[in-house]
Design goal:
heterodimer; A: 308 residues; alpha/beta; Udp-n-acetylmuramoylalanyl-d-glutamate--2,6- Diaminopimelate Ligase, Chain: A, domain 1; Rossmann fold; eight-stranded mixed beta sheet; B: 89 residues; alpha+beta; Histidine-containing Protein, Chain: A; 35% helix; globular
């Protein structure tokens, strides 16, 4: 799923508040591009084993790396650092605000490598940088629908145009649930291989309701009503009621929606007058949670749970 | 399925009002209608979707329609672009 097409500038990484970058050396080179979706903690590479060090990959120096460098004699240190930086790395991130000496900065400068100092420890840095890079590098697909957070689960509401997806979303927001994206959702696979949806920046927080126009959910319901992104857990497909179609009457739940080849449980919910969609969806989510916790379906209640 | 390439010739491109007219027109057909621009494919019946494309004058987009009235849909949508969304005289 990883496509290394375009890199991401170090600048973009620095802009992220959650990386807690407090200082940057060799600022001139913050336009360098990362071309690998994972961060690397070099470890032995600093001691000269450079085989698995790759060029476009951002490097994280934790206590081990800095500690090792500090106990080398200056000559050896210079030699090792030169070998290391000559690979042309996009940037080095130093954890826990560890001080870096002039030698490291000047050698990094020579090889056009910026050094970022972060407040975080190296395992937090690795996971946050990785999730950020995954979001950038992984293949994205766009899906029509509304993505919401209901009771902590990511729910995709799908259905034909004009069936009332946005109106239902508005009702759900009014009930206190969060909107992630209306109309067009961009999905990517996160570092855990799960599909995550987010809004396209341009229309984030906006929702189109026929009769009202395009309204801003953040202005009306507050900043807390909109979430940045959400992992997809369940799909609700709204359909016009049809007498010919067989709907799930027993709650056996064997429908799935595929995103990135992964099966996401889906419910088909027919739309007809008198069916309160937002409540139906809310209950569908609660039912889904209850089933996940191992509670019985009606069939299992009558006939007993089948041994698996 | 019918597909047709259309050049955007109105000054402002697919801006809010033009997009509203387009999605309004698309909604009058039973067919599924999509707009493809660069690598993006959006539902022509959804206004916000069209707006994310930000297609402007001189760009080419493709209209894809699939359904009973696809030929009429393409014809009328093409016509809407041709008459510059009735906004320039």
């Amino acid at each position: 799923m990883i496509r290394i097409n375009k890199g991401i500038e170090i600048n973009k990484i620095v802009d992220q508040n959650d990386l807690k970058i407090v200082k940057i050396y060799n600022k001139k080179w913050v336009t360098n591009k990362i071309k690998h979706p994972r961060a690397q903690k070099p470890g032995l590479a600093i001691a000269g084993y450079l085989k698995y060090l790759s060029r476009g990959r951002i490097q994280i120096f934790g206590k081990t790396e800095i500690g090792y460098l500090n106990q080398l004699d200056p000559e050896k240190k210079e030699m090792q650092l030169k070998k290391f930086f000559s690979i042309k790395l996009p940037a080095i991130v130093i954890s826990e605000k560890q001080p870096v000496d002039e030698l490291i900065i000047s050698i990094a400068m020579k090889y056009k490598t910026p050094i970022l100092i972060s407040n975080l420890n190296s395992s937090l840095l690795t996971s946050r940088i990785s999730s950020l890079l995954y979001r950038h590098f992984s293949k994205k697909i766009k899906i029509n629908g509304v993505l919401m957070d209901i009771l902590g689960l990511g729910i995709l509401i799908k259905g034909d145009s004009g069936i009332g997806k946005s109106e239902t979303a508005l009702e759900l927001v009014n009930k206190g649930y969060n909107l992630v994206a209306d109309d067009l959702i961009e999905f990517y696979l996160n570092s855990n291989d799960e599909p995550v949806g987010m809004s396209i920046e341009k229309i984030k927080g906006w929702i189109e309701v026929r009769g009202l126009g395009i309204i801003n959910v953040i202005d009306i319901f507050g900043a807390g009503a909109v979430l940045e992104e959400k992992r997809l857990d369940m799909v609700v497909n709204l359909e016009r009621w049809s007498n010919k179609k067989k709907y799930d009457r027993l709650g056996e739940g064997d429908l799935y929606f595929q995103v990135f080849g992964k099966d996401i449980p889906m419910f088909d919910i027919p739309v007809a007058p008198g069916r309160d969609l937002s409540t139906l969806i809310e209950v569908a989510v609660k039912y889904f949670i209850s089933r996940k916790n191992g509670n019985k379906s009606f069939i299992e209640h009558i006939y007993g749970k089948e041994e698996k | 399925m019918t597909e047709e390439k259309i050049e955007i010739i109105n000054k402002l491109g697919l801006h809010a009002r033009a997009a509203a007219k387009l999605s309004h027109l698309a909604n009058t057909f039973d067919s599924d209608i999509f707009i493809v621009y660069n690598e993006d494919k959006v539902n022509a019946k959804s206004l916000l979707g069209i707006l994310t494309l930000a297609a402007s004058i001189g760009n080419y987009i493709s209209i894809i329609a699939d359904g009973k009235d696809e030929i009429r849909a393409i014809k009328e949508i093409k016509n809407l672009f041709k008459k510059k969304f009735d906004e320039e005289s």
